Backbone:
């Protein structure tokens, strides 16, 4: 379904929980709301969004693997919506334990957030000494043969940007896409502008990278000779891609957020047992999707765990 600006909206990010077992500084995680939808409720939402044209669904959080029933949620969404892609974004700390069940439930793509491969830096950034568990989750996902495995990285100037070479090397040595995502103004970071590293500046550090095909909508991809994977750059601040944004967000409490960078969210939970009204409200949300965000004006975001980052 097209929105009022002619964009084809076919991608839904589903936050299954606001809870998280990391405390990353740039996320600005806030105390979670207690309300979380059940697998059956997620299935009802997924069916209605599929009717509205959604073909790709990503389960996010908070940290989605903190849900003991995450595989049940995935299976219910797969059965209800039959998406071409059913993906999970995770910090990876529980992935080695749950990856097989997720794959059996119909998940065919995994994104793992890894901001550094230095153990001390990892502990400072996340509040946990869990790098070995996260890299173990990556290895498990690769061994199980998901269709796509990606690594998401946010670099902060003066914090973890010195690890960029090692992160790029993951795409050299493994069939993964390593995607560098520009820092966004979340959680009220007082030094946000000082920490932001524009994608163009980062790309200039790696002159051996050349443009590569196969981007997935918002990522601009590069590769180099001998690489098994690719490097992607996602640049919501320096190179806004709102004109081709194809996504909505279903939050853990049943609200729909048409744009990550705008405050508007619409509560659709009251219509969950009325399929026709729910479909109509989803269509209205698609038409309410704004032309774009305004990160360049330093408009801050709510904490990521609350908005399905």
Residues:
């Amino acid at each position: 379904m097209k929105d009022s600006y002619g964009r084809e909206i076919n991608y839904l990010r589903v936050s299954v929980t606001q809870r998280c077992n990391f405390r990353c500084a740039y996320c600005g995680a806030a105390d979670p709301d207690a309300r979380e939808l059940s697998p059956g409720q997620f299935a009802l939402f997924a069916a209605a969004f599929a009717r509205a044209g959604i073909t790709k669904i990503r389960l996010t959080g908070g940290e989605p693997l903190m849900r003991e029933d995450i595989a049940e949620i995935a299976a219910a969404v797969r059965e209800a919506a039959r998406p071409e892609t059913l993906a999970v974004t995770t910090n990876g700390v529980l992935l080695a334990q749950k990856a097989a069940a997720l794959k059996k439930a119909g998940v065919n793509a995994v994104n793992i957030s890894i901001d550094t491969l230095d153990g001390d830096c990892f502990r400072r950034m996340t509040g946990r000494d869990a790098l070995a568990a996260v890299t173990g989750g990556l290895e498990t996902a690769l061994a199980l043969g998901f269709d796509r495995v990606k690594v998401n990285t946010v670099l902060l100037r003066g914090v973890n940007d010195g690890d960029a070479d090692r992160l790029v090397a993951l795409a050299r040595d493994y069939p993964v896409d390593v995607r560098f995502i520009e820092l966004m103004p979340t959680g009220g970071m007082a030094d946000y502008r000082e920490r932001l590293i524009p994608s163009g500046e980062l790309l200039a550090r790696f002159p051996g990278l050349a443009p590569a095909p196969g981007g997935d909508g918002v990522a601009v991809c590069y590769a180099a000779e001998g690489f098994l994977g690719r490097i992607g750059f996602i640049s919501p601040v320096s190179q806004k891609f709102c004109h081709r944004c194809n996504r909505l967000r279903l939050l853990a409490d049943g609200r729909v957020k048409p744009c990550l960078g705008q405050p508007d969210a619409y509560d659709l939970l009251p219509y969950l047992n009325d399929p026709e009204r729910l479909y109509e409200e989803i269509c209205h949300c698609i038409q309410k999707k704004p032309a774009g965000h305004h990160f360049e004006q330093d408009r801050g975001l709510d904490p990521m765990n609350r908005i399905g980052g």
In short: Residues 11-149+242-307 form a domain with the TIM Barrel fold (CATH 3.20.20.70). The chain has a mean pLDDT of 92. The first strand starts at residue 11 and ends at 15.
